[in-house]
Every structure is written in structure tokens, then in C-alpha cells.
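In response to reviewer comment 3 from the previous cycle, which asked for concrete evidence that the modeling workflow produces usable outputs, we include below a single protein chain processed end to end. The sequence was submitted unchanged, and the resulting C-alpha cells are shown without manual editing.
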Amino acid sequence: MKINKNIVKEYAETIIIAILIALFIRTFLVQAFKIPSGSMKETLLIGDHILVSKFIYGIKIPFLRKTIVPISDPEQGDIIVFIYPIDRSKDFIKRVIAVAGDTIEIKDKKIFINSSLYNDGHGVYTDNLIFPRAMQPRDNFGPVTVPEGSLFVMGDNRDQSLDSRFWGFVNLKDVLGKAFVIYWSWDGKNHGPRWSRLGHIID
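The workflow returned the following C-alpha cells.
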């Protein structure tokens, strides 16, 4: 059987173009992530698969993390994916609580931004214990002012989240994008999909 070289060439070109388009989309536009922990419950659950908009905060040069086309900066309330400052091989997802210039303080689990009580509508508290500042910063923290080019982030599962209270600020250069939709969700305990979460807009 004789193979038509033109057909082989066309298939090869089609595959290469498809790969390049997929790489472009993943690098500059949208990337998929899976939620591995419960730090964002109840907003995001273990097994949720989400899409993250990468261009919403500007177009960056890969690896250099330098923004070449600025569009906007993360705002208070945004759920962002970023490079974990302590281990840069990992990506974390948290909610932006304070931005550059804001002063944040936590008193007995109540969050204050610039001396005003933060509307903590997404915060979930599962532990009645309140740790003193001298023991750990989970429930009593600050006041600290967020530096220029940085963000203060927290998990919505406030009592079960390793976040800026423990390891500091997120550099704007390390922000990968903003989470915007759940496209798939798998319940590992019940071994089945969570159909009601599919297509859920993340806020």
C-alpha cells in the first residue's frame, strides 16, 4: 500500500498547528487546575477542576514572569492561582484579602482592613478555639501593611488554610491568573461526579 506523502504532510501540519494553539492558549489565555485540598471550602472543594483566566491580569513573558501587556491587577475578593513562595514548584489558590497599601489586622478571627471590619462573606470557621498571637498567627495577626507589588491572601476555610498569615505576601509577578469557572468536579469519597457544580461561576 502506497502512502500519499501529501496526506501525511497535511496531517503532520494539522497536529503541529493544534499543539501550538493549545500551548498558546495554556500559556497566555486559559489554564486548567485541579483543587487538591480543602483550604478553599466551601467555595472550592477537593476534586473541583477549574479554569483560570491568565490574560485578565495582563500578558506575561513565560518563565521571566514579566508583564508585557498590562490589563489589570488582582482586586480584593478575587480568587487567584499563584506560585507558592515557599516552594516554587507548587501552585496555590487563595482569595485576595488585601492589596498594596492596605493595612490588615486580625483580632480573634475578625479581619480588619484599614481599621474597618472586613465583610467576610466567604469565610468559613470550623474551630471555636482562638489562638493568641504569641502561639500562632491564625486568629490574631498584624497589623501589617501590604507592600507595593504584593497581595495578602487567605483560604476561605479560614481555620484550615496555610496562607499569608503564615508565610507572607504574594508577589504580583507570581500571580498566574484568576479562577472563574468549575468545568468538572469529582467527589472522591462517593466516587462520582458532582453534577450540580459543573459550569459553576467562581466568586
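The chain has one domain: 5-201. We consider this sufficient to address the reviewer's concern, and the full set will be provided in the supplementary archive.
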